[in-house]
Amino acid sequence: MRAQFVLSEIGVGLRRNLTMTFAVVVSVALSLALFGGALLMREQVSTMKDFWYDKVNVSIFLCNKNDAKDMPKCAKGAVTKEQKDQIKVDLEKMDAVETVHFETVDEAYKHYQEQFGDSPMAGNITPDQMQESFRVKLDDPQKYKVVATAFAGRDGVQSVQDQRSILDQLFELMNGMNAVAVYVMILMLVIALILIVNTVRVSAFSRRRETGIMRLVGASGFYIQAPFIMEAAVAGLIGGVLACAMLLGGRYFLIDGGLALQEKLNLINFIGWDAVLTKLPLVLAIGLLMPAIAALFALRKYLKV
């Protein structure tokens, strides 16, 4: 009988404040969708770092005959065979180095044509303008400075470049986007909490006579508060379900269908469905508990008779 009464009161409360309940559902859904999206974005960045950092190389570009005029580091002329052999020997001795690949001028020109063959400037580039280089794979990309310090000022070396620095700019951009999503999520959560508290207050005020009578006949505080708390929890749970639907739909639209980024950007290792599914229970739990706890604190004052 008590359970039936509580359930009936939940239905009455939700119908009585339908507009505010709808606002609570929408704000909770959006804030939790942003919360889940921020978690997934962070995991995507981590996945991409693991995937790409394992593939980046340190490139040691060697001086060619054309660099002597423009590059102070190559003032002594093009790199000699003895210098190349010594650089290779020193690289292979280093504990931080996993593999060493020497790229010839012809290989560098071929790779340039593959990447920039459609560029208007590609026709003005000749093989003798390209540079020989050592492509060095490290066992730990964080050890780039060890190689840079050892070879940056050596005769015959034009420059030492870390490919990871290019990726870092991309990851900084993605982390910035993630931070913006977190800030918007916090704002939406605050709005949702304010709406929940106001909805509970309005509901409690509209039923103050009934709650006063229940208090006078000896009903416990929890029994009186339960319908209001569950109203907020139900609205939050509906918002959580909508947020889960948005996360699932967003992942499908962006990666598998619609934009189909998985096919268009097949060099990127996107997060799988398992990453999304593991976040859904957390989103639902927050959607259920956050409004209930907010309602509990709001009722401590407004149900005193």
From TrEMBL:
<comment type="function">
    <text>Part of the ABC transporter FtsEX involved in cellular division.</text>
</comment>
<keyword id="KW-1003">Cell membrane</keyword>
<dbReference type="InterPro" id="IPR047929">
    <property type="entry name" value="FtsX_actino"/>
</dbReference>
<keyword id="KW-1133">Transmembrane helix</keyword>
<keyword id="KW-0472">Membrane</keyword>
<feature type="transmembrane region" description="Helical">
    <location>
        <begin position="21"/>
        <end position="41"/>
    </location>
</feature>
<keyword id="KW-0132">Cell division</keyword>
<dbReference type="InterPro" id="IPR003838">
    <property type="entry name" value="ABC3_permease_C"/>
</dbReference>
<dbReference type="Pfam" id="PF02687">
    <property type="entry name" value="FtsX"/>
</dbReference>
<keyword id="KW-0131">Cell cycle</keyword>
<comment type="similarity">
    <text>Belongs to the ABC-4 integral membrane protein family. FtsX subfamily.</text>
</comment>
<dbReference type="InterPro" id="IPR040690">
    <property type="entry name" value="FtsX_ECD"/>
</dbReference>
<comment type="subunit">
    <text>Forms a membrane-associated complex with FtsE.</text>
</comment>
<protein>
    <recommendedName>
        <fullName>Cell division protein FtsX</fullName>
    </recommendedName>
</protein>
<dbReference type="Pfam" id="PF18075">
    <property type="entry name" value="FtsX_ECD"/>
</dbReference>
<feature type="domain" description="ABC3 transporter permease C-terminal">
    <location>
        <begin position="184"/>
        <end position="302"/>
    </location>
</feature>
<dbReference type="InterPro" id="IPR004513">
    <property type="entry name" value="FtsX"/>
</dbReference>
<feature type="transmembrane region" description="Helical">
    <location>
        <begin position="280"/>
        <end position="299"/>
    </location>
</feature>
<feature type="domain" description="FtsX extracellular">
    <location>
        <begin position="56"/>
        <end position="160"/>
    </location>
</feature>
<feature type="transmembrane region" description="Helical">
    <location>
        <begin position="180"/>
        <end position="200"/>
    </location>
</feature>
<feature type="transmembrane region" description="Helical">
    <location>
        <begin position="221"/>
        <end position="248"/>
    </location>
</feature>
<keyword id="KW-0812">Transmembrane</keyword>
